[in-house]
Amino acid sequence: MSSRLPLRRTVARSAALGVLLAATALAAPSEAHAGPEQIAATSVDTDVEAQPKTVAKPITLEELPPAWVLPVSGYHLTGTFGASSSLWSSTHTGLDFAAPTGTPIRSVAAGVVTESGWDGAYGNKTVVELPDGTQLWYCHQNTLTVGVGEQLAAGELLGYVGATGNVTGPHLHLEVRPTPDVPVDPYTALTEHGLAP
User: I need a surface site. Which of 1, 106, 114, 140 has the fewest CB within 10 A?
Assistant: First the structure.
């Protein structure tokens, strides 16, 4: 029996050593059994993690100017788009903002002045063309303050309310024309750009 005891101890020790080796291999792979690529990848990962992190500097965001603004203040709406009257040769093609003579008129949106001067029934008229080709017509002005080719920002002064051309009183007649021959309802265009005329 004494000869079997050392054999049992040897088998028990071998089994314990096998379990220990297996557990060690699962917990952390040995570099001794890894190929050169695995060792290099381990080294690179360690180096990358050891580098300091770059933190972005905080920035201050500035409020953007509104894309569209109302052309006048202190007004009330009179003639609306599509209305019929003996005052017009056809249906009304714009929106009328009645205001006292001399009330400042501001550009509704950013664009370039393509016309500025007298235009018959429209009186003193300024046309501003937007980047998408839409034209904004500002009619019946008392005084024009911009010339052809000038670049305007939304809200920039372009003239003053008047009663020139075919009118019954001082007002701004505003037209919105996606193409030069086709006016659309300025009220709708203004509301689509977040304004409440």
Answer: 1
Enter the pTM of the model: 0.66
Separation CA 44–CA 9 (nearest Å)? 45
**Comparing C-alpha atoms, which of 152, 197, 143 is closest to residue 170?**
143
Rounded to an integer, what distance in angstroms lies between the CA atom of residue 137 and that of residue 115?
A: 9
Q: 24 — phi, psi (to 5°)?
A: -65, -40
Q: What is the pLDDT of residues 34-93, one digit of tens each?
A: 555 554 555 555 555 666 777 778 887 776 656 899 999 999 998 777 666 656 556 768
Q: Is residue 68 part of a domain?
A: no
Residue 138 lies in a domain: yes
Round to whole Å and give the CA distance between 12 and 116: 104
Write out pLDDT tens, residues 176-192. Answer: 999 989 899 999 999 99
- Residue 118 buriedness (CB in 10 A; 0-12 / 13-18 / 19+): exposed
Domain membership of residue 18 (yes or no) is no
In a domain, residue 21? The reply is no
> What's the total number of domains in the chain?
1
Residue entry with tokens 């300091």: 52
Parent domain of 136:
76-192
Q: How far apart are CA 148 and CA 157, in angstroms?
A: 14
Domain of residue 109, CATH code: 2.70.70.10
